[in-house]
């Protein structure tokens, strides 16, 4: 066993002195250090590695329970044993909720404490390694079927979320500002990442009441639906790109941008060499402002559902056409060599083809009211 360090915290100096003296008998297994306040303990933890903290509950200024909470937040690897002369089920429940590893009531036999420390610090034999192609859903099922109480911390890119278990039940989940069921669904829909099991983490609130099988089925259904939607969008993108290129058979057409209903450019084609993403972004911002202004004007006049907008300049035109039933729209930029009548006819034909693609792949549907 590698040398371990144990910190004993009690506001009564004679107790810490006595415990420190008795525990010296086990110095071949671990080294002890004592202090008489939670504030002093936190200062020691900043400077020295500890494997175990043994603390009294009732102490002035910072209680043992508050110290336990601080340790859980700052040093989650450290195990904590609570000792108190005021033991009751409520205190024990609160200590467990805050991540207490073990709980011992005063008065206790010193041999009992020595055994508890040795068992706590004992290096456990086992396997270490990594799991490849292992799905988060599989790990969740293992936790639930094994009736485990712990937490799974999941990281995907810059996102981190946690799922909490109590006796095999999923009781809480959190990611960013999301908590409860929606947080659980958000985490399980992530395409991949890393996970870590933490036995000391316990949920402070129970925000999930639904059974784990129902949660998992709904989460996997949402994941499949999102995956199918992404696949459909990728296929539709190729088809839309092909249709946009046919607009250039009309003389004078220079730029076509297909906008999603939220105003984000989805795909664009240009006959201008060197057209850059930054130029498309600038056009996008101007188009959004234009659409917002015209939409507000239409609203003031009691008009709804813009179908088409046209800006006719001396040396060209800018035209916006909305897709039926999806509110996505198309921007066409053409110079003054364009035959406006022919462009209108060709646009209707191409828009019909685009509408078929969007409808076939089920994209950009208007939400039902």
Structure in words:
The protein has 369 residues and is of the alpha/beta class. The protein has three domains: 4-121, Response regulator (Rossmann fold), CATH 3.40.50.2300; 136-210, no CATH class; 228-360, 2-Layer Sandwich (Beta-Lactamase). Helix content is 41%, strand content 24%. The chain has ten helices and 15 strands. Strand 7 and strand 8 (169-175) form a beta hairpin. Helix 2 (38-47) runs parallel beside helix 3 (64-74) and helix 7 (181-188) packs across helix 8. The radius of gyration is 32 Å and the shape is elongated. Residues 126-130 have low confidence and may be disordered.
Short description:
The protein is of the alpha/beta class and 369 residues long.
Average pLDDT metric? 83
For the biggest sheet, the summary is: 5 strands, parallel
CATH class categorisation of the largest domain: Alpha Beta
The CATH architecture classification of the largest domain is: 2-Layer Sandwich
Low-confidence segments? 126-130
- What share of the residues lie within helices? 40-55%
Number of helices: 10
What would you call the structural class?
alpha/beta
Beta-strand content bin: 15-25%
The CATH H-level homologous superfamily of the largest domain: Dynein light chain 2a, cytoplasmic
């Amino acid at each position: 066993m590698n040398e371990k360090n144990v910190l004993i915290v009690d506001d009564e100096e004679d107790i810490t002195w006595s415990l420190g003296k008795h525990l010296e008998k086990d110095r071949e297994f671990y080294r002890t250090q004592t202090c008489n306040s939670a504030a002093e303990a936190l200062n020691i933890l900043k400077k020295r590695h500890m494997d175990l903290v043994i603390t009294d509950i009732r102490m002035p200024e910072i209680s043992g329970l508050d110290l336990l909470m601080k340790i859980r937040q700052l040093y989650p690897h450290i195990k904590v044993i609570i000792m108190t002369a005021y033991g009751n089920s409520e205190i024990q429940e609160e200590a467990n909720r805050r991540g207490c590893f073990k709980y011992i009531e005063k008065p206790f036999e010193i041999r009992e404490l020595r055994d508890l420390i040795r068992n706590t610090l004992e290096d456990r034999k086992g396997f270490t390694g990594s799991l490849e192609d292992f799905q988060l859903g599989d790990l969740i099922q293992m936790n639930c079927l094994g009736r485990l109480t712990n937490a799974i911390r999941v990281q995907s890119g810059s996102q981190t979320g946690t799922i909490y278990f109590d006796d095999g039940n999923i009781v809480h989940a959190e990611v960013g500002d999301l908590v409860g069921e929606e947080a659980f669904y958000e985490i399980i829909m992530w395409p991949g990442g890393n996970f870590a099991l933490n036995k000391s983490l316990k949920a402070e609130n129970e925000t999930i009441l639904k059974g784990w099988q129902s949660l998992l089925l709904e989460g996997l259904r949402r994941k499949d639906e999102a995956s199918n939607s992404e696949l459909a969008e990728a296929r539709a993108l190729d088809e839309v790109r092909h249709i946009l290129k046919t607009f250039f058979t009309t003389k004078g057409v220079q730029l076509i941008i297909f906008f999603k209903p939220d105003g984000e450019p989805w795909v664009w084609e240009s006959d201008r060499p060197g057209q850059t993403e930054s130029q498309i972004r600038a056009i996008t911002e101007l188009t959004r402002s234009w659409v917002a202004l015209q939409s507000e004007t239409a609203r003031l006049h009691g008009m709804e559902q813009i179908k088409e907008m046209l800006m006719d300049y001396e040396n060209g035109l800018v035209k916006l056409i909305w897709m039926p039933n999806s509110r996505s729209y198309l921007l066409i930029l053409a110079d003054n060599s364009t035959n406006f009548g022919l462009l209108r006819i060709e646009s209707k034909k191409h828009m019909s083809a685009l509408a078929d693609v969007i409808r076939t792949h089920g994209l950009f549907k208007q939400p039902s009211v």
